[in-house]
Amino acid sequence: MHQPMFVNKRSRWTRLRAAHLVCALMVGMAGAAFAQTEAAALAPNTPQIANDAAAQVAKLPLERQVKWLRRAAQSGALEQMDDAQLVALFESIDPLTVPRYIEEGPNGYPSYEFTMLRQERIRGVWPRKPDHMLVRLTRDPLRIYSKWLPGGPHSGQEIIYDESRRSDEMYGHLGGLFNIMPLWTSIDGSLARAQSNHRVRDLGTEFIAQQFLDEGRKFAEAGITHPAQIEVKTLDGVRVVAFTYETPTGQPEFYAKKEVLGLDLRHPYFRMVESYGNDGQIFERIVFVTITPKTFDDMAFDPKNPEYKF
User: Fold this and answer.
1) Residue 27 CB contacts under 8 Å (≥ 6 apart), including other chains
2) CA dist., res. 171 & res. 167, Å (int)
3) What does the alpha-carbon distance between residue 116 and residue 289 come to, in Å, rounded to a whole number?
4) Which residues of the chain are modeled with pLDDT < 70?
5) What is the DSSP string of 160-212?
6) What is the pLDDT of residues 92-148, one digit of tens each?
7) d(Cα 16, Cα 19) in Å, to the nearest integer?
8) Which sign does the torsion angle of CA 180, 184, 187, 192 carry?
9) What is the C-alpha separation between 108 and 270, in angstroms, rounded?
10) What is the rounded CA–CA span in Å between residue 226 and residue 309?
């Protein structure tokens, strides 16, 4: 009499284990399918994958979109896409993906050298030519050497800033006939502001990234969740995905009425920024032409460096 009961218990146990196995297989298959979709999107760029990338990545949750974007940039897959594919991709992903990608960084390097083209409207005047600048920068402490290269309106000028020596002053000369008269001046003084609306501490890709994040929070509060336009631009040899943001009220609530930010195709920072005032006129344009991680010794930030003309 007990045997049938034993058999029934074993039978129920067998059925239960089989049900668990089926569930596990179904979960595994679903997970594998999801992983396969992500893997296809993350694979090296091919024409077929590039054409399908926007649709594949759009299906991923936010965290995985950020992960995909990082891996696609690092692998070179993003850079290999043509203009139409890049526009389709960035129009399809979550609007928070790019801010999260930028926020997680790194937005620059602990120590690097870059060249940049820079134009700013000062006292209502837009310069005919941009300044062409070489900048060497290292952090902890923040130290900066900058030289204005030939071809720009301030060619020959040099400055050094070292927050470990004087956090509120920089040392420099005006170039030209005045390059024999170096002097210390406030980083917020009239001499510094004569050529720029920014402080010397604002040089570098990190400042633009942080400004984008700060403004982005205000965009969100104003209901701006998507760029007004996404396009691919090549400026001075630098190819970027450009996001145009337009604010409802403009200045002074926002830094600019309209901003165009060009995302680097390999790293989580911007290679260009254009800012427009309430009157529709551009008042600032910056393009990072080259960005190279480098290690510097103390002489790189010493006026006695024989390479410099202090």
Assistant:
1) none
2) 11
3) 5
4) 1-51, 175-180
5) EEETTT-TTEEEEE-SGGGTT--EEEETTSHHHHTT-SS-GGG-SHHHHHHHH
6) 999 999 999 999 999 999 999 999 999 999 999 999 999 999 999 999 999 999 999
7) 5
8) negative
9) 10
10) 48
Cβ(145)–Cβ(132) under 8 Å? no
3-state secondary structure of 15: helix
Both tokens of residue 302? Answer: 């010493």
- The structural domains of the chain, ordered by start, are 2-94 (no CATH), 111-301 (2.50.20)
Contact assessment for residue 148 and residue 156, using Cβ atoms and an 8 Å cutoff: yes
| Stated pTM of the model | 0.81
Which of 296, 286, 284 is closest to 122 using CA atoms? 284
Task: Fill in the DSSP letter of residue 149.
Answer: P
Query: Three-class SS of residue 88?
Result: helix
